[in-house]
Design goal:
By secondary structure, the chain is an all-alpha fold. It contains four helices and no strands. It is flat, with a radius of gyration of 21 Å.
Length: 101
């Protein structure tokens, strides 16, 4: 059975178009509900977290070392460390643990 790839591309384009145009067509007035507005405010942060967290754990050979790097990054960020400092220290801690273990 031969599949036509252009049908798949058309369906994907249509679905993507509908997903992007539907909110513009449905929500013409500003959203006044506080719960929905706060929910929509945090959606980008949650999406970024959900995509980043598994990548942190799987970046090394073991989940334990990824978790150690994540914990070190959290601790340094809680003490008002800058982003380059937090990234460097967490990468260095994972590198040293891999080297010694």
């Amino acid at each position: 059975m031969k599949h036509n790839v252009y049908i798949y591309i058309f369906i994907m384009a249509a679905v993507t178009y509908v997903i992007r145009v539907l909110p513009l067509a449905v929500f013409r007035k500003p959203i006044e509900n506080r719960f929905i507005r706060s929910f929509l405010y945090y959606v980008p942060y949650v999406t970024l977290s959900v995509m980043t967290f598994p990548a942190i754990l799987e970046a090394t050979g073991s989940y334990t070392l990824g978790a150690v790097g994540f914990i070190v990054a959290i601790l340094f960020s809680l003490y008002k460390g800058s982003l380059p400092l937090v990234a460097a220290v967490s990468c260095l801690s994972v590198y040293l643990l891999e080297f010694f273990l």
